[in-house]
Amino acid sequence: MSLRLGDIAPDFTQDSTDGPINFHEWAGDNWIILFSHPKDFTPVCTTELGEVSRLKPEFEKRNAKAIGLSVDPVDDHRAWAGDIQETQGHGLNFPLLADGDRKVSDLYDMIHPNANDSLTVRSVFIIDPNKKIRLTITYPASTGRNFPEILRVIDSLQLTDDYKVATPVNWTDGGDCIIVPAVTNEQAKEMFPGGWDEKKPYLRMVKQPNKP
Ligand code: BEZ
């Protein structure tokens, strides 16, 4: 059965470029981006891993860490890291799991046999500090992911957790937010003293709470 939003992310121990990793222990109280790529030494994957390395400071600002995975061996991951540095200008700065026995791929349903029966698809899981799965996305092998979108989702989730606001279509950082329906107007007066724009009783727009 596939994993769903709100499920606890399954724990595992697997080898990686940083040595054996126990996932829950490694995750600690961080937000985690767990993502699979199909294969080392392939072009789209090379660009993705360079991008995730480039974005490390952005993950850190959000108390988030990335961890990648493919079924290739650790030695291949390490050898490929040189190409990533050379071609993308950013060396691998996060662990890559070596899931040759498919332990993690099977747990997280990352191999979709009707797409490819031996390689992982481009899965993404955002996992919160309580180890709950908060987002899943699956991309085909031929489409490189948009990692700024992953950061945008983390920002949105953190706003919801911290301030009880949701984010509207195409929201980006600094844009107006929506007071979640579970918050009554009485509660909202306390929580949003600057007020809000009530377009409908269920559509209450408010300035992004963590911005001046
Ligand atoms: C790539 O990363 O370029 C790739 C990997 C597997 C299949 C297709 C493309």
Automatic annotation (TrEMBL):
<dbReference type="GO" id="GO:0045454">
    <property type="term" value="P:cell redox homeostasis"/>
</dbReference>
<keyword id="KW-0676">Redox-active center</keyword>
<dbReference type="InterPro" id="IPR013766">
    <property type="entry name" value="Thioredoxin_domain"/>
</dbReference>
<dbReference type="Pfam" id="PF10417">
    <property type="entry name" value="1-cysPrx_C"/>
</dbReference>
<keyword id="KW-0575">Peroxidase</keyword>
<dbReference type="InterPro" id="IPR036249">
    <property type="entry name" value="Thioredoxin-like_sf"/>
</dbReference>
<dbReference type="InterPro" id="IPR024706">
    <property type="entry name" value="Peroxiredoxin_AhpC-typ"/>
</dbReference>
<protein>
    <submittedName>
        <fullName>Alkyl hydroperoxide reductase subunit AhpC (Peroxiredoxin)</fullName>
    </submittedName>
</protein>
<dbReference type="GO" id="GO:0005829">
    <property type="term" value="C:cytosol"/>
</dbReference>
<dbReference type="InterPro" id="IPR045020">
    <property type="entry name" value="PRX_1cys"/>
</dbReference>
<feature type="domain" description="Thioredoxin">
    <location>
        <begin position="3"/>
        <end position="159"/>
    </location>
</feature>
<keyword id="KW-0049">Antioxidant</keyword>
<comment type="similarity">
    <text>Belongs to the peroxiredoxin family. Prx6 subfamily.</text>
</comment>
<feature type="active site" description="Cysteine sulfenic acid (-SOH) intermediate; for peroxidase activity">
    <location>
        <position position="45"/>
    </location>
</feature>
<dbReference type="InterPro" id="IPR000866">
    <property type="entry name" value="AhpC/TSA"/>
</dbReference>
<dbReference type="InterPro" id="IPR019479">
    <property type="entry name" value="Peroxiredoxin_C"/>
</dbReference>
<dbReference type="GO" id="GO:0051920">
    <property type="term" value="F:peroxiredoxin activity"/>
</dbReference>
<comment type="similarity">
    <text>Belongs to the peroxiredoxin family. AhpC/Prx1 subfamily.</text>
</comment>
<dbReference type="Pfam" id="PF00578">
    <property type="entry name" value="AhpC-TSA"/>
</dbReference>
<keyword id="KW-0560">Oxidoreductase</keyword>
